[in-house]
Amino acid sequence: MYVEFDRDTCVGMYQCVAEWDAFEKNLNDGKADLEGSSEEEDDLFVVEVPDGEEFDAKFAARVCPVDAIEVYDDDGEQVV
């Protein structure tokens, strides 16, 4: 399972930070950062979800008010 985070879309509500420890507040930019991710495209960050953190990753995506977070299963199918 992996997460795609569109940082350009992020508006800095930080609801994801409260739901999954992989997200951190970046108060300088007014956006969240996804710890351990790699930038696949301009402002599109991707990270593998560690075992046991799948629920938290899905919940972080669900609470994002601007849908900047998407979760995909190992087959590449979007689950959130």
TrEMBL record:
This is Ferredoxin. It holds the Pfam family Fer4_15. Signal peptide: none annotated. GO terms for molecular function: iron-sulfur cluster binding; metal ion binding. It comes from the Archaea. InterPro entries: Fe-S_cluster_ET. Gene3D superfamilies: 3.30.70.20. Keywords: Electron transport, Iron, Iron-sulfur, Metal-binding, Transport.
